[in-house]
Specification:
This protein has about 130 residues and is mostly beta strands. Helix content is about 0%, strand content about 40%. The strands form 3 sheets. It has a 6-stranded mixed beta sheet, with no helix packed on it. The chain is globular.
């Protein structure tokens, strides 16, 4: 299967945006959702913890560009080992975003994250910005 699109190619000086407390992300559990502007469009994104590491992705299935969570901020299957698309059943690797089975075209778009001092941050870059009001 194809690999994921990596949006985590941040450059020096790209700002870190605080997202949540580290304790808010439980291994294989509920995600923390957030809004981003990607390529000029407002999109949902989510952060999860898997095997002790934090990962973040755009909330867009690669089969059909629609949100994947089956309940708000719920992406993992019952085993806590796969991210699922609720609409068509595609399975994605939580660590890489790569498609592992189902009707997906490529992998999830990965967002750079940094965890430090008990806070998870996502990294803004040229095509990926925070929503401004």
């Amino acid at each position: 299967m194809s690999s994921s699109i990596d949006l985590s190619d941040a450059q020096p000086g790209d700002p870190l945006i605080p997202l949540c407390n580290s304790a808010d992300l439980i291994d294989g559990g509920r995600a923390v959702g957030f809004d981003v502007v990607w390529a000029g469009q407002t999109c949902r994104a989510f952060a999860i913890r898997f095997r002790g590491q934090v990962h973040a992705y755009l909330n867009r299935c690669t089969h059909v560009a629609m949100e994947m969570d089956w309940r708000p901020d719920h992406f993992f299957d019952d085993s806590g080992q796969w991210l699922l698309c609720a609409t068509h059943g595609a399975h994605y690797d939580p660590a890489t975003g790569a498609c592992r089975s189902g009707p997906c075209r490529g992998g999830l778009s990965k967002i750079g994250v940094v965890e430090r001092d008990g806070v998870v941050h996502w990294q803004s870059q040229y095509r990926l910005k925070p929503v401004t009001f």
